Amino acid sequence: MAMDDLSNRILTKLAKTSRRIGATFPFVSINGKYQDFAGREEPLNWWTNSFWSGQLWLAYRETKDEFFRQTAESCEKQMDVALQRFDGLHHDVGFMWSLTAVADYKLTGNDQSRRRALLAAATLSSRFNLKGGYIRAWNDDKVGWAIVDCLMNLPLLFWASEVTKDQRFAHIARAHADTAIRAVQRPDGSVNHIVCFDPETGDVVETLGGQGFAVGSSWSRGQAWALYGFALSHKYTKETRYLDAAKRVAHYFIANICEDWVPRVDFRSPPLAGNDKDSTAGAIAAAGLLEIADNVPEHEQALYRGAAVKMVQALDQTCGAWDKSEEGLLLHGTHAYHHLGKDFPNDTPIIYGDYYFMEAVLRLKGRTELFW
Ligand code: GLY
Predict the structure, then answer these.
(1) Domain membership flag for residue 329
(2) Alpha carbon nearest to ligand 1 atom 2, residue
(3) Which is catalytic among the residues 92, 278, 347, 354?
(4) Residue 371 located in a structural domain
(5) 347: domain CATH number?
(6) 369, part of any domain
(7) What is the pLDDT, as a whole number, of residue 1?
(8) Helix residue ranges, H only, the chain
(9) Using an 8 Å Cβ cutoff, are 263 and 284 in contact?
(10) Residues paired with residue 330 on neighbouring β-strands, in sequence order
């Protein structure tokens, strides 16, 4: 597959969009323009706030264009207000500071970024429930809720242990990943979105459908978070059980993906009227499949790499927004099966779809170093 051509198209588009939106916090594109969602949750603690920075850092790594670096640095500095306020932070501090501060630290060695990311890791660790062995996801009365997405927040903890040479962060990450194998993953390899624990006893009380169709259904982005998240726990620990868990989700995902290689919003649901696809799930899964491919014996690699290539090709051909009037990279991102549609449509480019698409494309070009 012509990855040079695809990555050039991505970088050309990013150069243009970045000059218009600069150091803002895009989430979804509406009518072709990325909207600044800085004020969506006060102050700046909306979980998607780092994906634009992540794209800017990927672009900087490719081009060494200082504009990309300076814009990403500005986003990272602006997010200090959320870190300092503390109230309102949630488990997605992993997403938020991996693609800002950790990326900056890995690429430039910026010591202030290292400290920001360690503060975020300390916050994430503090959400661990010892009785249930899980990291609490959200705030308010959701004391016992853990969600599959959190597997993607664990790399911040593993990274913190590597940097500080203190295993406490990694112990928490392993405990959460083990709980996810036990309580989030199902015997067929698929995963629940939400698992509610009794925070006093640690027992599982119930599972919820969350952003998928219903209890017991199979929200495809949740499957993708698990596929990549388990693979990243393996990346840091080299524990086979995490790679096996990632492979189980991958096999389930590949078995359920449609013939056109773009996943449905939920693999076990009635079709969603209008748009039944979620391009973001395809992009995340493709990036995760490439991590699995690089960690299995050579004779197993083709299954995972081949599926990832098919997904990237399908996303490019059927969802790629190469028309200059659209700032997003991928059309047909879907927020949730049951979307209220108040602030934005349920069929639109979403910033994390763009990030993982770019990461997967660059990985197919041999850029295997990750910010995770
Ligand atoms: N982490 C929430 C989502 O995937 O929409």
Answers:
(1) yes
(2) 149
(3) 92
(4) no
(5) 1.50.10.10
(6) no
(7) 67
(8) 3-21, 51-63, 66-78, 80-85, 93-97, 103-108, 111-125, 154-164, 168-179, 220-237, 240-256, 279-293, 301-314, 351-364
(9) no
(10) 320
- Closest ligand 1 atom to Cα of 211: 5
Give the Cα separation of 30 and 97 in Å (integer).
Answer: 26
The whole-model pTM stands at: 0.98
Cα angle 67-69-72, degrees, rounded to a multiple of 5 = 105
* Rounded average pLDDT over 108-134: 98
Per the listing, tokens 């028309």 go with 323
Ligand 1 proximity of 176 Cβ (cutoff 6 Å): no
Tell me how long the chain is: 372
- Taking the C-alpha atoms of residue 330 and residue 348, their distance in angstroms, rounded to an integer, is 8
**CA distances from residue 25 to 130, 206, 301, 340 in whole angstroms, order as listed:** 34, 35, 36, 22
Residue 92 annotated as catalytic: yes
Domain-embedded: residue 159: yes
Q: pLDDT tens digits for 63-97?
A: 999 999 999 999 999 999 999 999 999 999 999 99
Please identify, by atom number, the ligand 1 atom nearest to the C-alpha of residue 147: 1
Residue 43 pLDDT > 80 = no
Rounded CA-CA distance 136/364 in Å is 34
Q: How many structural domains comprise the chain?
A: 1
Is 87 an active-site residue?
no
User: Are the C-beta atoms of 322 and 357 separated by less than 8 Å?
Assistant: no
Q: Output the residue whose Cα is nearest ligand 1's atom 1.
A: 149
Domain of residue 49, residue span? 3-364
Ligand 1 centroid distance, CA of 300 (Å):
30
Report the pLDDT averaged over residues 97-121. 98
Cβ of residue 193 lying under 6 Å from some atom of ligand 1: no
**pLDDT tens for each residue of 160-212:** 999 999 999 999 999 999 999 999 999 999 999 999 999 999 999 999 999 99
